[in-house]
Amino acid sequence: MATYIILINYTQKGIESIKESPSRLDAAKQLFKAMGAEMKQFYLVTGRYDIVVIAEAPDDATVAKISLAIGSKGAIRTETFRAFTEGEYRDIVKALP
Prior knowledge:
It is a single chain. By secondary structure, the protein is α+β, with helices and mostly antiparallel strands. Helices cover about 40% and strands about 30% of the residues. The protein contains 4 helices and 4 strands. It has helices at about 10-15, 20-35, 60-70, 85-95, and strands spanning about 1-10, 40-45, 50-55, 75-85. Strands 2-3-1-4 form a 4-stranded antiparallel beta sheet. Strand 2 and strand 3 (about 50-55) form a beta hairpin. The relative contact order is 0.27.
């Protein structure tokens, strides 16, 4: 499975209902699982973003569906990056002309 880094910010709606955030996290984990993906790590962070998630999914389309479904609830905004493991990085560099 491919690895993804998802950077998350609370919206005004999300921060106003912050006490509901743990139940939203549980629902998100279930959605990942139902779509054949997995939320591997979750971090509440300080700085520009509020949350960082490390996830694995079978493909980009699956992650896009998950992000859209979760984002459509209105509590968060996401920015998602495909992350390459060290092994994948080495294979990519090795294949360069």
